[in-house]
Amino acid sequence: MTERHPVGEGLWRELARQALARLLRSYGSAQFDLCEDAVQEALLHAYQQWPTRFPDDPLGWLTATARRRYADRARSDARRRNRETRAAMLHPPVTPEARQSDDSLLVLQLCCHPDLPRSARVALTLRAVAGLTTAQIANVYQLPEATIAQRITRAKRRVAALGRPLPRPEHARERLASVLDVLYVMFTEAHHTTAGAPPRDADLAAEAIRLARLLRRSVPESTEAAGLLALMLLTEARHPARVAPDGSLRPLDEQDRTLWDRDLIGEGIELVEQAAPGADPGPYLLQSCIAALHAQASDTAATDWNEILALYRLLEIVTGHRNPTISLNRIVAQAMVEGTDVALAAIDALEADHPGLPRTDAVRAHLLEQADRPADAAEAYRRAAAATVNLAEQRHLRHRLRRLAGTDG
Amino acid sequence: MKYLILMHVDPAALEQLSEEQQRQIQEGHGAFMAAAKESGEFVATQALADPSRSKVVRSSGSGPEVTDGPFAESKEFMGGFYLVDVEDEARALELAKQIPDAAIPGLALEVRPVMFADLGDE
């Protein structure tokens, strides 16, 4: 958007999301496609008109315009279809405008519907809730705009075809887990992207945090929503120290902790301290507790590894031992508490159960290096560098390999 | 997650194809592209000219030197590729099986993860 325009990009997105929520509240999730198109058209209209005639009530104006667009489209569609459809589409609003926070959650839940493919959930959430344009989403993922547009179109049709009535506000907590997972995927994609190009992904992390804040406001009593937001803030805080100027990754024990963002850490820790006492230990809350312990330590030696190991074991239990990546992280903590021999044996056992688990050889290589077994460590680094699909991680592993061979500082 | 599906070709197998088979392959690729676009998984595709048109640029010790290609010595060559963006490797393999080459002896598809992509638009 141009600088002279009376509405900044943040407000545009906020207005678009709220207008969409209002339309969906009125016409139902079966009309997702039509509602979203109507809001997009209304936005275009607003963008042209508002510089010369700015409305007193921008959201009211946008919603009213979107409703007219919706009615126009529904009518022309209905002409092609039958009378019953027309009656359904022109159905008057069933409820008065609901509270904004409930509506935000509702749109999030529709976009994160578990019946949609994961990539479609992410794309739809970025478009309909975060308010990104198709071009912006395409750029984040380095995909052609047509590919993203098609994904969103299919996802909207799918949501419409699911055709269930909108969840009522008192049932708004349903499907929260799917929303949490979509936001977490979005965030981890930004930080461990397969594209391996950090500068482009900063936006995606910011979007995920924005959405996690929105979710937290919508369900203030959910300690998992608080845990997810805290986890994101605490992870984001380490980002400046995590990627070296050459684009390679710096592991936690090599990071310059003065580069960590203290404001984000403060906010994250406060969230954890509010949410954790007496709460059910959910996976996101537990991970945020672990991140908070790292954030509070001045270095690796000062880190409370006993507590971290205990939290990882609890995390394995609450996730039913179904996520081997959590077990791999537990083994890293185990090495600090029980020594590298115990940890190396644990890795062998984990690998036997989960062959091909990503990062297994990377963790093993670090442990072998610590155990002063350079030849075995080098072999493991070579395998790890070949196995990863992350460019920054591969650079880091090759750097460790060269350092081990004495050909690099 | 992006995957490159490389189309490998044995020229001897290609020569033995009947008109009918050629037509089926062509139509099959058209149908595959349409389906991958419809599902929102298509990124790009390119078909390459015959490897006899290749030149190779490489260091001769004192600087880059140009010779006739191709680089690889084998009789098989890469005829082209599809770039797709899918949920996981299993889906990439599922797509590769739908490419008509998968049904022709002497042709093969190689599926490899992409680590970095820049499609050039800002």
Structure, described:
The complex is a heterodimer of chains A (409) and B (122). The longest helix of chain A is centred in the first third of the chain and has 23 residues, at 58-80. Chain A has a domain at 1-97. Residues 91-101 and 198-202 of chain A have low confidence and may be disordered. In chain A, α12 crosses α13, α14 (305-318) packs antiparallel against α15 and α17 (360-370) runs antiparallel to α18 (374-387). Chain A is an all-alpha fold and 409 residues long. Chain A has 19 helices and no strands. The two termini of chain A are 47 Å apart. The model of chain B has no long low-confidence stretch (mean pLDDT 93). Chain B is α+β, with helices and mostly antiparallel strands. In chain B, 17% of the residues are buried. Chain B has helices at residues 11-15, 19-38, 89-98, and strands at 2-9, 42-47, 55-59, 64-68, 77-85, 107-113. Chain B is 29% helix and 33% strand. In chain B, the strands form two sheets. Chain B has a four-stranded antiparallel sheet with strand order 2-5-1-6. A two-stranded antiparallel ribbon of chain B has the order 3-4. The longest helix of chain B has 20 residues, at 19-38. Chain B has one domain (2-113): Alpha-Beta Plaits, CATH 3.30.70.1060. Classes of the chains: A mainly alpha (409), B alpha+beta (122). At the A-B interface, α6, α7 and α8 of A face β2 of B.
